[in-house]
Design brief:
Layout (H helix, E strand, L loop, with lengths): L4 H15 L36 H8 L11 E5 L3 H13 L1 E3 L1 H9 L8 E9 L4 E9 L3 H9 L9 E6 L2 E9 L8 E11 L4 E11 L2 E8 L4 H18 L2
Antiparallel strand pairs: 1-3, 2-5, 3-4, 4-9, 5-6, 6-7, 7-8, 8-9
C-alpha cells in the first residue's frame, strides 16, 4: 500500500468535486405548466443572460489573490482544459469496485461534461498542524446543470456509507451534510470520512458555492475540529466570491 494513497485519493476528490458535479443525477427543475386561460395574454418569457465565460488566466488571477487562514498565498495551478480531468475521473470510477452498486451509478452520473470548462486549483499546507486547504474555481459548466446539481444535494444521504476498491486499495467512505454559511446564491457543504483497510483515516470538508457561472469549491483536510475545518473551507469560498464581479 503506497503511503500516499490517501493523499492521492484526496487530490482526486479535489479535482472531481471541484471541476464537476458531485452529488448525483440532476433532478428536473421545470414546473408543470398550468392550462392557459383563453382570455389571458401570453407574457413573453425573458431570455436569460448567459454567464460570462472566464478564461483560465482570469480564474488564476482570482486564485492568486486568495489567502489561507495564516494570511499566506495559495499554490495555484491552472487547468486550461478540464476535459482531461473528467475523463480521468470517469476512468477511475469505472475501474473501481464500488458497493453499494447504485453508488457507482450516482458517481458516474455526477460527472458532468467538461469539454468547455476552464479551471484552476489552489492549495495550502499548514506544516505545523499537518492540515491542508484547497479551492477550485471552474467556469463553463452549463448554468441549468449547476442549479440542478445544487438542488439534488439531499442525495448525499443515499450513499452515506460505501466502499471503493481500486487495485489493492480499499477505502470505506462515509458522507453527510454539514452546516456552513456561504455568501453565494447557491451553496452546499458536506463531510467525507475515508478509512483504509489498515485503519488509517482522513476526513475532508467540502464547501461549494456558485456565483455568476463560476463554481467555487473549498476543501479542508485535517484540523483540530470539524467547525475549524468548515471555517477554513468557507473562508476560501467567500474570498473567491467577493472577487467575482
Amino acid at each position: 500500500m503506497n503511503k500516499n494513497a490517501l493523499r492521492g485519493i484526496g487530490a482526486a476528490a479535489l479535482l472531481v468535486m471541484g471541476l464537476t458535479a458531485c452529488v448525483g443525477p440532476a433532478a428536473s427543475t421545470e414546473a408543470a405548466s398550468a392550462p392557459a386561460s383563453e382570455t389571458a395574454t401570453a407574457t413573453p418569457t425573458p431570455t436569460p443572460t448567459a454567464a460570462k465565460q472566464y478564461t483560465a488566466e482570469e480564474l488564476t488571477a482570482i486564485a492568486l489573490q486568495l489567502r489561507d487562514v495564516n494570511g499566506l498565498k495559495l499554490s495555484v495551478m491552472s487547468i486550461a482544459d478540464a476535459s482531461g480531468v473528467e475523463q480521468q475521473s470517469r476512468a477511475m470510477f469505472e475501474g473501481a469496485v464500488i458497493e453499494p452498486a447504485e453508488c457507482k451509478e450516482l458517481m458516474l452520473a455526477s460527472l458532468l461534461p467538461t469539454d468547455n470548462v476552464k479551471g484552476v486549483v489552489g492549495t495550502s499546507l499548514d506544516t505545523s498542524t499537518g492540515s491542508s486547504t484547497g479551492v477550485t474555481l471552474s467556469s463553463g459548466v452549463d448554468e441549468e446543470l449547476i442549479k440542478a446539481d445544487f438542488a439534488t444535494q439531499d442525495q448525499i444521504s443515499d450513499c452515506s456509507g460505501m466502499t471503493m476498491t481500486m487495485g489493492e486499495t480499499t477505502v470505506t467512505l462515509k458522507a453527510r451534510k454539514v452546516e456552513a454559511t456561504v455568501s453565494t446564491p447557491l451553496s452546499m457543504a458536506m463531510r467525507t470520512d475515508s478509512v483504509l483497510a489498515d485503519g488509517r483515516k482522513q476526513s475532508m470538508i467540502m464547501v461549494r458555492g456558485a456565483k455568476d457561472g463560476i463554481v467555487i469549491t473549498g476543501l479542508a483536510y485535517g484540523g483540530k475540529t470539524e467547525e475549524e475545518a468548515i471555517a477554513r473551507a468557507v473562508d476560501l469560498v467567500n474570498q473567491a466570491a467577493a472577487l467575482i464581479k
